[in-house]
Structures are given as structure tokens and as C-alpha cells.
Amino acid sequence: MKKITSVCPYCGAGCKLKLVVENNKIIRAEAADGITNQNQLCLKGYYGWDFLNDTKLLTPRLTQPMIRYQKGGKFQPVSWDEAISYTAQRLSDIKQKYGPRAIMTTGSSRGTGNETNYVMQKFARAVLNTNNVDCCARVCHGPSVAGLQVTLGSGAMSNSINDIENSKCLLIIGYNCADSHPIVARRVIKAKENGARIIVCDPRRIETARIADQHLQIHNGCNMALVNAFIHVLLEEDLYDKDYVARHTEGFEEMRETVKDYAPEKVELIVGVSARQIRQAMRTYAAAPSATIMWGMGVTQFGQAVDVVKGLSSLALLTGNLGREHVGVGPVRGQNNVQGACDMGVIPNQFPGYQNVVDAQIREKFARAWGIDPASMDDQPGVRITEVPHLALEGKIKAYYIMGEDPLQTEADLGLVREGFDALDFVVVQDIFMTKTAEAADVLLPATSWGEHGGVFTCADRGFQRFEKAIEPQYNVKRDWEIISLIASAMGYPMQYENNQQIWDEMRELCPQFYGATYEKMGEMGHVQWPCPTIEHPGTPYLYQDNQFDTPSGKGQLFAAAWRKPAELPDDEYPLVLCTVREVGHYSCRSMTGNCAALQSLADEPGFVQINPQDAAKAGITDRQLVWVSSRRGKVISRADVSERINLGAVYMTYQWWIGACNELTQDNLDPISKTPETKYCAVNISQIEDQ
Ligand code: SF4
Q1: I need a labelling partner for 289 at 20 to 30 A (CA). Which of 101, 559, 602, 619 fits?
Q2: What Gene Ontology molecular function terms does this protein carry (predicted)?
């Protein structure tokens, strides 16, 4: 029996654990003393390894390469040589015929690790010659990255997970940490025990609201109006730090002009809470000696998400809550390595280390390192994942190489996504399970899983952490970066790596922010937070020390914007708002947690639709009853979960269930900047199943 140190493959809390292995089988997980989790795990950490035993509870493991030679035909098992040469030939043909930008690729924010993401974006940029590489950050914290890069300079948490408990005020908006990051939720409880004031802004009475000093039970879809009202109060009641604003910020007058129409008394009807509550929240936030803002998908999955993120950072700038311990802004990243995928340049506008693709000098640096002609590189930002269905239907995207993502389960408006897939000439899926997207592929490339390989993840607070291989893979599978390298070589660009560290060191040499985060340092310290620019540097627990912001002027950018209504409002036919949410025992598209016996036994098909008792009574629905939920785009079966915790006029579903997938109902009103869909708001109807 041996114990292997690893990092949980689920949420961005980055908990360390030990996998206990006997006869090449994992038999249990134990909590380890990681800096973010301190010998604690949630149920996914303790029971989320069972999928490695190929339980076939939800779907079977991909065990060998397969090709479907004809659309509509059957998958045929093939050798790796055949799978690689067929994929390379088809991609080369499409590149030749339609150009590099006709091919889309994805990295993965899940268990594959940073090294693979680096190799995938290199494949896109150096071999395919396109910036068409993206990841699921697009549908979660893409707006946080885009917004914070403009206002503060860095699109990440400015603070550390372990420092949350030391803050004296937590302003938590659109973030249900008890379900999405249970170990972060423990820090919130500790903060409360340490005397922090907790303000929660959320339409539902979520767990955190139960311990909050103030719960602003806001209307769905009002975030920008609420944030504007917050800023209005800080200015009108003279609660802001004038000296800090004068020395460290820009844009004050424009922001003041924008919020002048957002007095709390004027926006009560929009936001659904009283002016007194709004004013009290800002008096508490501004008076605290240290304050932290935390947010999640309830901020970012809206058509006006980037504006709201920028507005939230203005609250921190106005009150001087940046650049020191115990304060900051915290977009708490969802998937375990979604921060890492962005760090590694699996985004269409930036190389690894957040270096812009439109900068000719940066392109030259990467081209030289990769041994290619700079002129062959794409000099424009590439396509975002959420744009693929539209561009496929327009004939502009012809091939899609998808690694460790499941867009046919996780994207908004699945009917549209299916139409887009039908229009593609060639789909390659590299994954560990036969997901919904894998079922639609032309080529299946089976990869090793977390547990079967090691590497580096980045957790939500910018902490690089190494994880180790625990067991030998049982099947005819390969490491993700090895598969990509073989395809690259078959396409005429020789690519060969011996191990993870070789890739990591190549990446470090090209990324000044990450250069000092060596394998050795991660081994010694366990958790190295970027920026870490030199070998001697210990890493950065909080950003913007001395209030030096990474903006062109070095100053924080204040911002507010007029509130826009969500795109699809309830009406007589579809009278309720649908908001997508998380379920604590499951993760993302559920291909991993759905194959873990303990987790599957806690929650099974077809999921739930949470609804207020009054709305349920109006529709003649009782608790646990099977119901239809329909929107203008589709109709699914779900089970009613009637609860007083749910606000009137709204229902809540997860996107994880294979039957009753709520993304059949959602709509893809995209934020104009980040192209993140508005999955937190669309109009639906709910009805008894007997009536249909
Ligand atoms: Fe894993 Fe997140 Fe749970 Fe920690 S909180 S054990 S990282 S799922």
C-alpha cells in the first residue's frame, strides 16, 4: 500500500489529498495538509476518485482510439498510428482548403494539467497557425478575466484563499460557496467566527445567507443596478477613501456621472431590496478595517457580466481595499484548473502568461522559441467557444479538436450547439469518457486521467501546485500532451517531450510572471502563487502591493455602466426566470462524479428544479413531483424541489443531468466583450407532467 500526494481534480479550491493505492487500485482518499485546505476535504475530495475504477455507472471509459469514417456510421477501433495519421491528414486538408482559422481547438480546465494546456495552445498557434484555442473559462469566469485586466491589470483573485478568514468584512455576490467550493465556505465560516461582517447578495437563501449579517435577497438579473447603487452610496454618503482615490485611481468623474441616477431609493423596484438595506450594506463594507469581495457565476453568467466585474473592482478601489493583506477582490474560479488553463494561454487573445497575441514583439518571442516563422502566426485574437456554433453554421469553422470539454452538455442552448456540430466537417474528441460530445465525434482519442498522470494545477488563488501519478493506466490510452505532440509531428512540426517538467521549463522561459515557479520550488513550498518572476522570489499572496496596478498608467480604473435588462424577460407564456446553479456532490458535465458510486448515490437523475412554494402551488405542483420545464428553445423533465429558500418568480436547475439537461432551455445572449452566455437568466414555464 502506498500514499500518493495529489490535488483534488474538482473545484478551484485546490485541496491537497493523498490517494491510497493498493495493487494499482485507489482504495481511498485522505486529506493532506495543503495551504488552502489544511487537512480538510469536501465529499468530492473524499469520494471523487471512484471513476478511475471504470465503474460504468454513467458512461464507459474510452479505452482505445476509434474512428467513425463516415458521418452517421459506427465507431471502429483503430491503432494509435491510424488514429494519429487520420487526424493529422484531415486537419491538414482542412487547413489547406479553408485556412487556419477554420479549425477550432480547446484546452481543458480539468484534470489534465497545465503542461498539456501549454502544449495544446502551442499546437494551435505553431502548427495550425491560429489563435482559435479556448476553454470553459469562456462560460464561467471569462468576464472576471476581461474586467479585472482592464480595471486592475490582472484577471485573477487578488488575494489568497487562506487569508479570507482574516478579512473583517466579506461582500459575497452571486457566489454559493457551500455548493461550489465547500472548503472555501469553511474560510467564510472562520471569518465569521473571527468577527467578520458578512453581506450576501443573492436571490436565493443560500447557505451563506444563513450566517450573514445582511442578506440582500435581490431580484435575478439586477447586478449592475445594485453595484451602481452601492457606488452611489459610497459617494453620496462620503464613505470612500478620497486620498486613496486621488493617488491610485482614474475615471472618478465618469463613474460619478454614470451612477448619479442610481440612488438606492430609485432602484428599489429593479433590485428588489430596500434603499435602507443597500445603504446599510455599503456602510458596513466601507467601515470595515479590511474587506473582501467574492463572486461566482451569479455575476459572470450574464449578458452584462464584464461591466459588473469592473463595477465590483471599483468598490474595492473606492475604499482602498486592495494591495495589502486581508482585503481584495476574489473571483473564485470554478473548475480545478480553469485558472491554469488561462495561465497557459488557452484563451484566444493571449499567449501563456497573459501576453497579448496582437503584440508583434511577443509573437516574435514565441515564434523564435518554437522555431517557426513569426509571419506564419495568427496576429488577431481567435474564436471563442461560444461563437463556434454560429461560425460553424456560417461555414467559417470546419473542424473542432476538443480536449477534455463537453460542449454538447455544458453550453447554452444545446439545440443551437447541436446544429453547429452537425455543420462541422470533422470533430476530434480527446477525453477519458464517452461524453455527449464524444458521441458526436469523428475521431476519439482516449487519454490518461487524473490519477494516471502528474503535472501542475493552478488553484483559484493563483497557486501552482504539483500533483503526482498514483496508478498505471489500465487501457490503451496516452497522456494528453503526447497525443497532441504525435499529431503535430504527423502534420510536419516535430514535437517531442520526455516529461512534464521539460514542458513546464519551456513555458517558464517564455513567461516572466511564472519564471521563478520551478518544479523544485513547488516541491519545497507546495504552493507557489504567481507572479513569481525570479528563482529567489517566494511567490505573491496578494496582488498590487503598494497599490501599483498592472494597467498602462499604473492606476486602478474606476468604472460604472448603465444597467441593461437581461435579454429574455418572463411573460404570460413563460412566466418564470430560470437560473442555472451547482449541486454540491457533482461537478461540471458529471462524466467524472457520475461514475463515482458514493457521489452518484447522493443525487441521481433527473436532477431537480428548485421552486418557491407559492409558484409551485400556482402551477399545481407538489414537492418531488416530476414536472415539465419548457422555454422557447426546448422542454425537459425534472423533479420539483419546493423550498422556501427560493425567491418568488424564479426556478433553479443544474446543467449536469443527462436527462433533463437545463441547457436545452438556456439561451446564448453573450456578453459583448467576454462572449459569456447569459445562462443565469431565461424565461421558462413549469407544468405538471400529467397535463402533457
Ligand atoms: Fe475538491 Fe473543491 Fe472539495 Fe476541495 S472543496 S475537496 S478542491 S471539490
Answers
A1: 559
A2: 4 iron, 4 sulfur cluster binding; formate dehydrogenase (NAD+) activity; metal ion binding; molybdopterin cofactor binding; NADH dehydrogenase activity
Residue tagged 482574516 (cell numbers): 166
User: Closest residue (by CA) to atom 6 of ligand 1?
Assistant: 45
Q: Which of 658, 655, 657, 646 is nearest to 610 (CA)?
A: 646
399: three-class secondary structure by DSSP: strand
Q: Cα(43) to centroid of ligand 1, in Å?
A: 8
Using CA positions, which residue lies closest to atom 4 of ligand 1? Answer: 15
CATH number, domain at 15? 2.20.25.90
- Cβ-proximal residues to 574 (8 Å cutoff; 6+ apart), any chain: 630, 631, 632, 683, 684, 685
| pTM over 0.90, yes/no | yes
- Cβ–Cβ < 8 Å for 379, 358: yes
Q: For residue 294, how far is its CA from the centre of ligand 1 (angstroms)?
A: 17
168 has a pLDDT exceeding 90: yes
Residues with CB under 6 A from ligand 1: 8, 10-11, 13-15, 37, 41-42, 44-45, 181-183
How far apart are the C-alpha atoms of 489 and 504, rounded to whole Å? 20
Q: Which protein residue's CA is at the shortest distance from atom 2 of ligand 1?
A: 11
**Mean predicted confidence (pLDDT) in 164-185:** 96
* Residue 583: band (very low, low, confident or very high) from pLDDT cuts 50, 70, 90: confident
SS3 (DSSP) at 665: coil
* CATH number, position 198: 3.40.228.10
Domain that holds residue 30: 2-53
For residue 217, the tally of other CB atoms under 10 A from its CB is: 18
Q: Are 321 and 368 found together in one domain?
A: no
- Position 586 scores a pLDDT of 87
Distance 611 CA to ligand 1 centre (A): 27
Domain co-membership, 372 together with 512: yes
Give the Cα separation of 508 and 352 in Å (integer): 9
Q: Using an 8 Å Cβ cutoff, are 488 and 495 in contact?
A: yes
Which ligand 1 atom is nearest residue 181's CA? 5
pLDDT tens digit sequence for 618-673: 999 999 999 999 999 999 999 999 999 999 999 999 988 877 789 999 999 999 99
The x, y and z cell numbers of residue 313, run together, are 473592482
Cα-to-centroid distance, 538 and ligand 1 (Å): 25
Cell 442555472, residue located? 580
Are 111 and 158 contained in the same domain? no
Give the model confidence (pLDDT) of 453-480 as tens digits: 999 999 999 999 999 999 999 999 999 9
With cut-offs at 50, 70 and 90, classify the pLDDT of residue 17.
Answer: very high
Instruction: Kindly report, residue by residue over 661-684, the tens digit of the pLDDT.
Output: 899 999 999 999 999 999 999 999
Atom of ligand 1 nearest to the CA of 336: 7
Domain boundary among 332, 352, 373: 332
Q: How far is the CA of 143 from the centre of ligand 1 (A)?
A: 23
- Confidence band for 347, pLDDT divided at 50, 70 and 90: very high
